[in-house]
């Protein structure tokens, strides 16, 4: 229900913003040549590399799609997940791409001075861009409301997915205290303990930003790296084994699937080191990208934990038919 509301709310907000800022455009509009051909880099990197580093935001927006609908989160609550989940992932990426372009292109048409946006103390250019376009703080706030509501809906979705991931790993005995985290609340019919754990972790991560924005950015950026690695690893293993275990599957694409796998692994091989780079140079203590440090530390801790405890207690998720997985 929340996801359906989010879809309609997203496109309604996009259309409202598109019409308002293009029609009003208090400070004028750029021409199409500026919108589609002008490139300006203020990162210190060469233009091509600056463009690649700038893909981090798009990478996060698309990579989290698989996390939210992944087998360890929501697919166990979906009918015919072997068909519906792949369709949902593909459809979500397509819809997000369309909505994103419809939202960003009008903003570029009314984009104010870029140097002024870069120097904003808040680091958030969106309110300033919309305010400049409509010429009214009240109007800008009204157009920001759909974005704020969408952020809340997105937060609910991420919390739900994180709690289901925690529950699934606990059910499979992969984390300490599994018996407690896998409990289902009888009244609410949700993994309440796992949900509370997810929310506490989110709160702690949010508090980090009050102490160090660089550390906070490291934890948010490392999510893209971890998700990309988690997608590329099973794909690479499947390709190494000749994709023998997925033949005849409900969403088997044949030769097209091989092409998709090659592109996915190639992109991951580029994206992982790319997202470890600092976004601007020269690098300072506030602009350095600590995401690789967090990634290596998390990988090392996971490896040690598996060597000490996991290989004796965790055999991987149960295959279909071993027991009922319904939440």
What is the topology?
Elements: H1 2-24, H2 32-37, H3 47-53, H4 56-68, H5 81-109, H6 114-118, H7 125-134, H8 137-171, H9 178-181, H10 192-211, H11 213-240, H12 255-274, H13 291-313
Helix pairs in contact: 1-5, 1-8, 4-5, 4-11, 7-8, 8-10, 10-11, 11-12, 11-13
Plain-language structure description:
The chain is an all-alpha fold. 17% of the residues are buried. Helices cover 68% and strands 0% of the residues. The longest helix is centred in the middle third of the chain and has 35 residues. The C terminus is likely disordered. The chain folds into two domains: 202 residues, no CATH class; 101 residues, no CATH class. It is found in: Membrane. It is a multi-pass membrane protein. InterPro entries: AA/rel_permease1. It comes from Tolypocladium capitatum.
Task: Please outline what is shown here.
The protein has 327 residues and is mainly α.
Based on Cα principal axes, name the global outline.
Answer: globular
Query: What summary fits the major beta sheet?
Result: none
Q: How many domains comprise the coordinates?
A: 2
| Number of helical segments with 4 or more residues | 13
Radius of gyration over alpha carbons?
Answer: 22 Å
Mean of residue pLDDT values? 81
Helical coverage, percent range? 55-70%
């Amino acid at each position: 229900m929340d996801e359906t509301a989010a879809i309609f709310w997203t496109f309604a907000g996009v259309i409202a913003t598109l019409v308002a800022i293009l029609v009003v455009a208090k400070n004028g509009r750029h021409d199409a040549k500026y919108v589609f051909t002008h490139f300006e880099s203020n990162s210190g990197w060469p233009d091509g590399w600056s463009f690649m580093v700038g893909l981090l935001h798009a990478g996060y927006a698309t990579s989290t799609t698989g996390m939210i609908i992944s087998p360890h989160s929501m697919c166990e609550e979906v009918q015919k997940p072997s068909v519906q989940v792949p369709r949902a992932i593909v459809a979500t990426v397509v819809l997000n791409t369309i909505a994103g372009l419809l939202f960003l292109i009008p903003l570029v048409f009314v984009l104010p001075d870029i140097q002024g946006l870069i120097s904003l103390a808040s680091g958030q250019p969106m309110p300033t861009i919309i305010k400049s376009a409509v010429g009214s703080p009240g109007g800008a706030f009204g157009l920001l409301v759909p974005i704020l509501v969408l952020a809340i809906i997105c937060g609910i979705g991420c919390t739900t997915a994180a709690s289901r991931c925690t529950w699934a790993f606990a059910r499979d005995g992969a984390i300490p205290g599994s018996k407690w985290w896998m409990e289902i609340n009888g009244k609410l019919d949700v993994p309440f303990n796992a949900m509370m754990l997810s929310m506490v972790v989110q709160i702690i991560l949010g508090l980090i930003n009050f102490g160090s924005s660089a550390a906070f950015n490291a934890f948010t950026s490392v999510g893209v790296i971890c998700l990309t690695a988690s997608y590329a690893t099973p794909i690479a293993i499947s390709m190494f084994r000749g994709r023998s275990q997925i033949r005849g599957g409900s969403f088997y694409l044949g030769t097209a699937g091989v092409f998709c796998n090659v592109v996915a692994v190639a992109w991951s091989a580029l994206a992982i080191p790319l997202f470890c780079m600092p976004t601007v140079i020269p690098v300072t203590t506030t602009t350095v990208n600590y995401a690789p440090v967090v990634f290596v530390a998390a990988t090392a801790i996971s490896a040690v934990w598996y060597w000490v405890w996991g290989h004796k207690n965790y055999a991987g998720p149960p295959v279909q038919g071993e027991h009922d997985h319904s939440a």
